[in-house]
Amino acid sequence: MKYLITGKNGQLAKAFAKRFEDQSLECMVPDESRCDITNPAVIRELVESSRPSVIINCAAYNLVDRAEHERGRAYAVNAEGPRVLAEAARDQGAFLVHFGSDYVFDGKKESGLYREEDLPNPLNEYGRSKYAGETAVRDVLAAHSLVLRLSWVFGEGKQNFIVKLLEWSRGQAFLKVACDEFSVPTWTETVVDVTQRALEQGVTGVYHCTNSGFCSRYEWAKVIVRQQGIDKFIRPVSMDSFNLPAHRPKFSAMSNRTIADLLSLSIMEWDEAVSKFIKEGK
Predict the structure, then answer these.
(1) Is 34 or 123 the better-scoring residue by pLDDT?
(2) Which fold would CATH assign to domain 2-153+187-211+254-268?
(3) Which of 70, 201, 246, 273 gets the highest tally of CB atoms within 10 A of its CB?
(4) Is the pTM of this model over 0.85?
(5) Distance separating alpha carbons of residues 211 and 99, to the nearest angstrom
(6) Domain boundaries, the chain
C-alpha cells in the first residue's frame, strides 16, 4: 500500500505523515509547491509518476472569514481541487480520502446531533465550497472514495483554536469566548485512527468523524486554560458580538455513531482528547 498525502503544511497532513512513518508505511508528502491540487496537469503528472494506492487529501482553504471575500480561492482549493484529485485517482485506479466540514449544516436542527442523512444547507462561502468539494468527489469517484466530515480540528500546528486561545491569553487581561456556538473539538489523532480503520475495512461513502460529545467554544476554552494551568478570566459572550464577516451555524455538532458502529470503534470524548493532546505536547 502506497499513500500520497496532500496539504503537507497542515496539522492533519502532519498527523498522517507521522503515523505512517512510525508504522514504516510507504508514504509521499510532497511540498505544496509540487502538489497544487488546483492544477490538473501537475496533479495528473504527480499521480501518474508516484502511482499511489490511496490519496489522502488534507489540502484545504480554511480561512472562514476571508472566504467571504476570496470566494474564487476558496472554491479553487475546496471544490475544484478535490474534483481534480478524484479524476486523477479514477484514472490511476487509486482510492481517495477527502475531508469535509460541519459547516455544511445551518445549525437549525433541534432534535439532536447532525447525522449523515441530514440535508446540508451551508451559511457561508467556506461551507458552500466544502460541500461542493465533497459533492465533486462523490460524483467522480463514488464507489472508490471516503469522505469524512470533521469539526473544530486540533493537532500539531498553529491553525487551531487551542493555539489561538493561548496566544490571546498572553496579550489580554481577560478573554471573551462565544458561549452559543456548539460543535465537537476533534483531534487529528482521532481522524487518523478512524481513517486507517476505515481503509482496512474497505469503507466508502460519507461519514461524520469527530470525537464524542459536544461543547461550546466557551466550555472548550475553560478546559484548555485549566489543562495549561492558566489563571485567566473567560467571559462567555454571544457569537454575534464579534461581528465576523462569515455567518456561522450556532449548533453544528455531528454524531460519530454511524462510523463508530460500522468500524466497531470506541471514540474518546472531546475533553479527554484535548487533555491528552495538551499533556503530550508538554
Answers:
(1) 123
(2) Rossmann fold (3.40.50)
(3) 273
(4) yes
(5) 15
(6) 2-153+187-211+254-268
